[in-house]
Design goal:
- The chain is of the alpha+beta class and 184 residues long.
- The strands form 2 sheets. It has a 5-stranded mixed β-sheet.
- Bound molecules: zinc ion (ZN) (2 copies).
- The site of one zinc ion has 7 residues, from loops.
Length: 184
């Protein structure tokens, strides 16, 4: 009944795959990942629902290639008006897993020159690591609730998306502001 013979554990909801169970011709899989997993750690990612991942795995010697796509919906706060909004994102997740013991380096120190490579120990790879990286990369540096968000007035603080105000100049002097309107 399990649709995912690779993990063997349907209930875990994990993204670990037993390397010996990957057939030589490769295999494909789909995963649905609990958003709570992304809320953990030093750089939590807020999501509105589960993250989906689909892709194919194939072995090349002791290396394992994963090529797939992810889709998620980020829960963000506008950098201009602070309004909460959601942003659907998707992207490729391409990684090669290399066995740590053959690299001669510890798993805590992945090869810096190949950021898409992950080291794995034992006979299990964890797709969560590259998935999390890709979801993190999809977060905009300056999230905007919409392209033309007007943000707050620096003078009076009203949300300019909702209403306009009389502030025109940095002085904030309403009489001068009114005057400048006419000069323009
Ligand atoms: Zn905004
Ligand atoms: Zn204002």
């Amino acid at each position: 009944m399990s649709h995912d013979p690779l993990t063997g554990q349907e209930s875990s909801g994990g993204l670990t795959v037993k390397v010996p169970l990957i057939p030589e011709e490769g295999t494909a899989g789909e995963w649905t990942v609990d958003p709570a997993r992304f809320a953990e750690g030093a750089h939590p990612i807020a999501l509105t629902g589960p993250v989906s991942l689909a892709g194919s795995l194939y072995k090349a010697g002791s290396a394992v290639n994963f090529q797939g796509r992810m889709a998620a919906t980020l829960a963000l706060e506008c950098s201009r008006c602070l309004a909460p909004f959601t942003l659907p994102v998707e992207g490729e997740v391409n990684t090669v897993f290399l066995p740590a013991e053959e690299e001669g380096v510890k798993a805590e120190e992945p090869d810096a020159e190949s950021i898409d490579a992950q080291l794995y120990e034992g006979d299990e790879i964890d797709l969560f690591i590259p998935l999390r990286d890709q979801v993190a990369l999809a977060i905009p540096m300056r999230p905007l609730c919409r392209e033309d968000c007007k943000g707050f007035c620096p003078q009076c603080g009203v949300n300019l998306n909702e209403k306009s105000c009389a502030c025109v100049t940095p002085t904030g002097d309403p009489r001068l502001a009114a005057l400048k309107k006419f000069i323009r």
